[in-house]
Amino acid sequence: MLVPTLRITATLEYVEAPPAPKPGAKLSPLSEVELVPVGLAYDQHARRVLQGRTFEDDDRLEAERRAKEDAALSASNADADAVDSEPESKDLLSLDPKEWKARCADTV
């Protein structure tokens, strides 16, 4: 499976100024590090860029997709409930749920 590569340039900015270096301290040598973007925010950004969507389009389409998934899930849960459920007998429905301890004591 071919996975598209998306390159995004990023700049890091400090919110606060970094602490001042101690006198006599030396800087470490520069090195190249590969940053791997991960997370939900990056996935959403990459999807919008690759599919050429605006925020509004993406939000609308994702809401529709989630609604379809929820509908499919609730339909499968309804099927499972229908299989597991059975009608309750009139005798069982006539019993008072608050009296369960007394019923258990009578049977022992």
Task: Please give a structural write-up.
The structure is a single chain. The protein has 108 residues and is an all-alpha fold. The protein has a domain at 38-75. It has helices at 40-51, 55-84, 90-94, 100-107. The N and C termini lie far apart (65 Å).
Please mark out the parts with pLDDT under 50 across 5 or more consecutive residues, or reply none.
Answer: none
Order of helices and strands: HHHH
Please state the CA-atom Rg, rounded to the nearest Å.
30 Å
Helix content: 40-55%
* Biggest pleated-sheet summary: none
Q: How many DSSP-defined strands? A: 0
State the secondary-structure class: mainly alpha
> How far do the termini sit from each other?
65 Å
The percentage of residues in β strands lies in under 5%
Number of helices: 4
Overall pLDDT level:
80
Shape designation: elongated
Features of this protein?
single chain; 108 residues; mainly alpha; elongated
Topology, element by element:
Elements: H1 40-51, H2 55-84, H3 90-94, H4 100-107
Summarize the structure.
The chain is mainly alpha-helical. The protein contains four helices and no strands.
